[in-house]
Specification:
This protein is an alpha/beta fold. The chain has a domain of about 220 residues: Rossmann fold. About 40% of the residues lie in helices and about 15% in strands. It has 14 helices and ten strands. α4 packs parallel to α5 and α9 packs across α11.
């Protein structure tokens, strides 16, 4: 498959020297270096400093999880918690770059289709940038917590009958130069989100894990994280790639089916309670496929019960996440059951959203299944 096109041509850097620069920037009071995205500015699109819109995103924890490792059946497991970003999801890493680029280009507004997290993030960054924001969301399928964020940050909300895919279809014709679409089809989004890979490696002292598990919805994050690892290898920061595992909900798994069949993606009508990854026609699937294959990775689907149980396992350790995030841990357990994941594996599971993003779903999980295997770990 042809390498997808991106904005940035990587510079030549001395790996050890650049790592020292990154350590110095972490201790800096320079506003843009308080960001775990703009700290890597040499690896990002060149934008005027006055256009940069940041909320100190990207400085997220890497939680070691012995109980999670036992749950997944492997030696070591940690959570990269992207839900600890300013608006509560991984979207902030890409949105800081996308909205900054829109501001630099003279846009008067930004727009997106969203199940909640993209719109929350877009609204926050647009407000900081002084831009109008327009969010198209599927009616009745967005948690009240996310809707509250979108409204609170000042976006105009348009509810669309149907799914995320129907909302996205309504964006056609919106990108007229005055209003910029900031879904993951916007390449600036992926440039920011690739910094999750750099942050993960930096937190581990640049030691590469064996596997990285990522929940898969519209697949921009999977593509971006894979790209980040591949660039780290190209730059000489690491000596091998981790294997990338993209985990979809079984009721919204067109990418898993396409990967298994080695065929083009066929859209589906999403049927899953994991609303953040309820996408039937993911727009970044070709980019994600490239990154999965480049890493020797896999794409799998897990059912909602497995996601719910993994969600309880994560919460039982005092960490918590949005339910859809738990697909990452459920995927690790599924691959161990299939003997694809070795028992001595070193694993990082990416958690994409904060636990308060969808509290009603969490209450439903615990009301319907009050006792979990996770509680005995």
């Amino acid at each position: 498959m042809k390498l997808p096109e991106y904005h940035v041509r990587l510079p030549r850097l001395d790996p050890e020297g650049f790592k020292r620069v990154l350590r110095e920037r972490r201790a800096s009071y320079e506003p843009r270096f308080l960001s775990g995205v703009w700290r890597f500015e040499e690896l990002l699109p060149r934008l005027p400093s006055e256009a940069i819109v940041t909320l100190a995103e990207g400085n997220v924890p890497l939680y070691e999880s012995p109980r999670g490792a036992r749950y997944a059946g492997c030696d070591a497991l940690a959570y990269l918690h992207l839900g600890m970003n300013p608006s509560g999801s991984f979207k902030d890493l890409g949105m800081t770059v996308a909205v900054s680029a829109a501001k630099a280009a003279g846009a008067r507004g930004v727009a997106c289709a969203s199940t909640g997290n993209t719109a929350s993030s877009m609204a926050a960054y647009a407000s900081r940038a002084g831009l109008n924001a327009y969010a198209l969301v599927p009616r009745g399928r967005v948690s009240t917590s996310k809707l509250a964020q979108i409204y609170d940050y000042g976006a105009e909300v348009v509810e669309v009958d149907g799914s995320f895919d129907d909302a996205f279809a309504r964006l056609d014709g919106t990108n007229d130069g005055a209003v910029t679409i900031v879904n993951s089809v916007n390449p600036y989004r992926l440039e920011g989100q690739k910094c999750a890979a750099f942050a993960l490696l930096e937190a581990r002292g640049w030691r590469v894990p064996d596997w990285v598990f990522v929940p898969g919805g519209n697949l921009g994050n999977s593509a971006a994280i894979g790209k980040g690892f591949r660039e780290a290898l190209e730059l000489g920061f690491i000596d091998r790639l981790p294997r990338l595992a993209v985990v979809q909900a079984a009721g919204a798994a067109p990418f898993a089916r396409a990967w298994s069949a080695r065929a083009d993606l066929v859209p589906v009508v999403p049927q899953t309670s994991a609303s953040a990854i309820a996408v039937g026609s993911p727009k970044s699937w070709r980019k994600a496929l490239y990154e999965v294959d480049a890493s020797g990775g896999v794409v799998i689907a897990v059912d909602d019960d497995a996601i719910d149980d993994a969600k309880a396992a994560i919460g039982a350790e005092g960490i918590g996440c949005e339910p859809a995030s738990a697909a990452a841990l459920a995927g690790a357990r599924a691959l161990r059951d299939e003997s694809v994941l070795r028992p001595d594996a070193d694993v990082v599971a990416v958690l994409t959203g904060h636990t308060l993003k969808d509290p009603d779903a969490i209450l439903r999980i615990h009301a319907s299944r009050p006792r979990y295997e996770a509680r005995a770990l």
